[in-house]
Amino acid sequence: MDNSVNQRVIDLLLVEDNPGDIELAREALKESKILCTLNVVRDGAAALAYLHKEGDYVHAARPDLILLDINLPKENGQEVLKEIKEDEELRNIPVVILTMSDAEQDVLKAYRLHANCYIKKPADFSQFVDILRSIENFWFTIVTLPSIGGKER
Question: Is the pLDDT assigned to residue 152 strictly greater than 50?
Answer without folding.
Answer: no
